Amino acid sequence: MNSHPWDRFLTENDKAHLSASKHVPIGFGEHPALLLIDIYRGVMGDEPQELMEGIKTWPGHTGMNGWNAIPHVQRLLAAARETGIPVIHASGNPGIPHWSDRRDALRGRPTDPEIIARNKRRFDIITEVEPIDGEIVVRKSAPSAFFGTILSAHLTYIGVDTVIVGGESTSGCVRASVVDGCAHRNRMVVAEECVWDRHESSHAMNLFDMNQKYADVLSTDEIIEWLGEWKAKQSTRELAGAAR
Predict the structure, then answer these.
(1) Catalytic: 173?
(2) Is the pTM above the cut of 0.90?
């Protein structure tokens, strides 16, 4: 049996309930897309740093949990591009007050010019996973990439029924987007190694909760394997259509 990050946090009663319940995966649909959520400078910083060091410069830093996930995100992103599925990036909207700005204001607004200049870059997607031509960027001012944005309408327009998710944070914007995506009747798939959080317990139990209710939490390898199979099927269909 494959282990999951949430296993060590489950109580004996939790395990008994899971054993008595039959968990049924949601499964993939026919038309997938990749959604990368909030992989921007404000949570990554300008270089890999441990959490307690990173927050000295970037208060929203996610530490090495984020940087350790980036190679997995890059693998998934490369597979999505190779397969030819739509890739969508979600980041904050610098022109609209962010949902966390009220709490930040209580800490005191910065007056240091260096901090002010740095904050102007906080929603810039990091170069390691930056969008390429043809990939859209959804600008959001709430935790969910669906709330107040064109994302749901765009997915409907291009015929997507399955949304593969990576990014951060597992307990925050990833979970909010997964719940909203499920509410919009998309099949939601979370790439386990491609999402992260500042806190281990929050990461683990939110993955567990999403897997139980709103999404399939799968390994990056499993998703990449499925994308390869999906591409092969598409090629077969195209050849069959050309032969008619």
Answers:
(1) yes
(2) yes
